[in-house]
Design a protein that fits this description.
single chain; alpha+beta; two-stranded antiparallel ribbon; 2 helices; 68% helix; 13% strand; flat
């Protein structure tokens, strides 16, 4: 197998991932996180078919990302207001 390809296992399926400039350990960590989420959701929704389960996991991961982005932007706005307040207070 080529050096720039990493095989990861998610929900008992193997996937070949082209690394490019990405760190293999980081990609492996991402795959493990996704697999963990699949395992959790498969236990909660034991009768759900794999395609629906995949969509549910993807939507929940997207929700996590969006919440993180919103929190991150809120911190940026707080910082900007703090800096503006310092400028105005002078």
């Amino acid at each position: 197998m080529a050096k720039d390809v990493l095989v990861v296992k998610i929900f008992n399926e193997e996937y070949k991932i082209k690394l490019g400039a990405n760190d293999p350990e980081y990609i492996q960590k991402l795959a493990q996180y996704v697999d963990q989420r699949f395992q959790e959701y498969s236990k909660m929704f034991s009768g759900m078919d794999q395609q629906r389960l995949m969509m549910l996991v993807c939507l929940n991961l997207a929700d996590e990302v969006m919440k993180f982005r919103t929190e991150d932007k809120a911190e940026e706005v707080k910082k900007m207001f703090s800096e503006l307040l310092q400028i105005v207070s002078k």
